[in-house]
Amino acid sequence: MALKTLQVPSSFARPINRSFIGSSSSSSSSSQFSLRPKPASARLAASVAGERRLECRGGSSLHGCVDEGAAAASRRRQEQAVEIPIVLFPSVVFPGATVQLQAFEFRYRIMVHTLLQEGVTRFGVVYSGGGVGGGVAAGEVGCVAHVVECERLVDGRFFLTCVGGDRFRVVGAVRTKPYVVARVQPLADAPPSQERGGDGGGDMVRHLVERVEEQLKNVAALSDKLGWSRPPLPFRATCSPSSLSFAVAREVVEDREEQQALLRLDDAAARLAREGRYLERRSRYLAAIAAIKDALGGHLYCNDK
């Protein structure tokens, strides 16, 4: 495992500020990240060349023509792509999540040291899926991790406290040595008007939010009945539908493959609908366990909590 989650004292875990704190030989930097491309003459030249239009001539099939709108959209996506260091991690990181990591593998020590030297406070995290490969595949979806606190130990390890930022989709690997660097594109949710269309879309999202909240209450009540730890209940007053969907995914959903599937979705309504089905299955499972416990007079021992 390249990085591992830390259990550290609360005094270290608190995000005091947004600065990236390095060793005594490295100055602190409060620079923040944005997914903006660096100007490049080669890219600009390619963009100009790409403006040439291809025309369909008589007898040409539709499949032989280039969709200019799709080509322009592809160029825009390429221009948005940036290079970012990638950490392959055995857990899924979501926007808004606080993650505490220890960088102890040599390649990640080099990565953090390089970030310190460049005054950079972010890297990308991609779910490894339990694999042992050292690369990252195009199309994978991950999350930017913003470093809010860093401590360097005398043996060269780093303790990092990070907050999940924007999601991204991997365009392709740039290199894999000494650590993975990939070109990524920002991945944002589709606007509500485009997700479902008009006021009906807003009504559907509100219905999905209410359904998820109701299922969360059911899961919490059944967990209390069984004496199991209950999931946190996000407050809708402080959560947008998108934020609520990410909070449920990171705090309640336990299956990592399911978490990664939720991270890939670029539609808050689709995430909420999928989470509603997940919570419904979880409620039925807990209800069945509670019924068995009652039938046995309250004597039931189960490790699956």
UniProtKB/TrEMBL annotation:
| UniProt xrefs under SMART domains | LON (SM00464)
Q: Which SUPFAM superfamilies match?
A: PUA domain-like (SSF88697)
Listed Gene3D superfamilies: 1.20.58.1480, LON domain-like
Where is the Lon N-terminal domain positioned along the sequence? 81-283
Q: Which GO terms describe its molecular function?
A: peptidase activity
Return the InterPro entries for the record.
Lon_prtase_N, Lon_prtase_N_sf, PUA-like_sf
Alphabetically list the UniProt keywords. Hydrolase, Protease
In terms of Pfam families, this protein maps to: LON_substr_bdg (PF02190)
Q: Which GO terms describe its biological process?
A: proteolysis
Which PANTHER family does the annotation name? ATP-DEPENDENT PROTEASE LA (LON) DOMAIN PROTEIN, ATP-DEPENDENT PROTEASE LA DOMAIN CONTAINING PROTEIN, EXPRESSED
Q: Tell me what this protein is called.
A: ATP-dependent protease La domain containing protein, expressed
